[in-house]
Amino acid sequence: MIVGIIVVIIAAILIIAAVVAARRGSGRGSAQAELSRLPLRPLSASEREYYLDDWVHVQGSFVDAPGTALESADTLVGQLLQNVGYPTDDEHRLLRLLSVRHGGNVEAYREARAVHEKRKAGAAEVDTETMRIALNGYDDLFQDVMATHKGQADTEHSTADTGIPTAGTDTPVDDTDTPTDETSKRRHEAEAAS
């Protein structure tokens, strides 16, 4: 009788584990399917230059004004994500979709957003070191998205509501993780050396 109960308990545990695994898999599959329907696009050369120049400015402003730099990083990364085609109106959906191609950076980005929101709410525990870590979280996602959505060359340009030039191209997104700018190259070299 005891053996029968143990068998039933083990069977129940296995069934529960299978259901949980299926739900996790279908969630990622669902995000992948939704992502494949989004009009993601590469960035033109002028867009890349715009974002890279602004990013250098954001990072450089951190020493004198860390709070302002964090606000600027949040805004710039949000603009970048929206410009390449991610829906930015629902943060939970955005994080789920980002996890498909940028999974290694989603948690740090989520934490950076949380720090940004705490700071906006006036939380006293948001010190400079916490903001530095948050800025690194934004940087990781920024570099990854820039590398993933690199375009071929400039084509015809228009200006969106954000004032950022957008390319009129349907070129597929390049999903390689190859670093394309000096900051990203240095980061990858430093990680490889450690």
- Secondary structure: number of strands: 2
Number of domains: 2
SS summary, helix count: 6
Strand content: under 5%
Write down the CATH class of the largest domain. Answer: Mainly Alpha
Give the strand line-up of the largest sheet: 1-2
Q: Under the CATH scheme, which architecture of the largest domain would be assigned?
A: Up-down Bundle
Which series of helices and strands comes N to C? HHHHHEEH
| Proportion of helical residues | 55-70%
**Structural class determined from secondary elements:** mainly alpha
Main sheet: strands, sense, barrel: 2 strands, antiparallel
**Radius of gyration, taken over Cα atoms and rounded to an integer in Å:** 21 Å
**Large-scale geometry:** flat
The termini sit apart by: 57 Å
**The CATH topology of the largest domain, please?**
Four Helix Bundle (Hemerythrin (Met), subunit A)
| Oligomeric state of the chains in view | single chain
Structure, explained:
With 194 residues, the chain is mainly alpha-helical. It has two domains: 1-37; 41-193, Four Helix Bundle (Hemerythrin (Met), subunit A) (Up-down Bundle). 70% of the residues lie in helices and 3% in strands. It has a two-stranded antiparallel sheet. Helix 3 packs antiparallel against helix 4, helix 3 packs parallel to helix 5 and helix 4 runs antiparallel to helix 5. It starts with a helix and ends with a helix. Residues 154-188 have low confidence and may be disordered.
Q: What distinguishing features does this structure have?
A:
194 residues; mainly alpha; Four Helix Bundle (Hemerythrin (Met), subunit A); 2 domains; two-stranded antiparallel sheet; 2 strands
